[in-house]
User: Fold this.
Amino acid sequence: MALTKASCTKIFENIVFGEIGSKDKNKKGIEPNTEDEQEILENIVEFVGQNTVNPRIKKAYTKCMDCKTHYPVLQPPPTTSLYRGLKVYFQNQKKLGINLSNITKRKTIQGIDLIGYDQLYTPKHSVESWTTEPGVAFGFATRAGLAYPSEGVEAMKEIKNAVATMNKRMGKLAKQLDKFRLEMVAMESGKKLKTIDRAEDFATKTWDDLYYELGEMSQEGQRLFTEVVVVIEISPDSDCIFNPDLSNKISANYLGGVKEYEVARIGGAKGATWWFPAAYLEYAQMVEGMRSTIAQIKENFKKKKSQEPFKYLLRDVARMVSKHKGLSTAEEIKKTLDKMANLEGKNE
Assistant:
């Protein structure tokens, strides 16, 4: 409930957190904090530093909210977007309602290509941190360093680079499988292989090569998809509190100077856009390509005797690909490929 100017002055006087900027409370020109004001500041410092929420912290932010109409420094800036970065454990995607088959949007933010869709965001805490700086949200989503927004941007680029590396490995796998197919055709026609005397020897050699590449790919995939990167975008509303300049000033004085450009929000569900790295689509295409290759080889040779030496190889490759970490994400993403084809080049 909004308080009168007189009531707010009893708490904050003329300058909100007037002691910030000087460790000397007696320094001329510095307005000492009132007892209530100091208590509010200490709780806000605790929240900004740890992002934990308790009744004391909620009360502190509520007091600020009640007085924000009287102090511009408590009002969020006139920006069009606020961002919140999350990294969601793979198994928790469904609990948050993440469904990548809903993707309808593309956007490029600070050079990072994103895909996304509109969906209601329901806060998990009574007070939550948002930022006016996308790079900071990228940093939280990727758990990169937070000292500079550029670190979050670089971490998002690493996701794209990692998918590109996996694409190269998948390309090598595809070549191995194509070689496998050609050798099977040669044996079916009765030709003698130049370098391999028996089909069983060829299957063993091929499997050794494939196993190595699949193992390398699995390690990279687990790093990518153990957790899924999400950046949520909302428009500021009346439930938002704090100008980032004040938040950064608090950080500079109490938390080592990390600039998070923070705006807090105390409110309920809010319409939002959920953004994900566009590289996830590349990953889905790559996986579907490998599945198709395996399915085609099986179909071509399923009734031929020459498949006998290779059936275990095919089975094991198929199992490794199907169990690869992140494939259920790819299963959802692939449903969007046709829709996304119509959105090429568009930014929203």
In short: The chain is about 50% helix and 15% strand. The chain has three domains: 5-73, 82-150+227-277, 153-215+279-337.
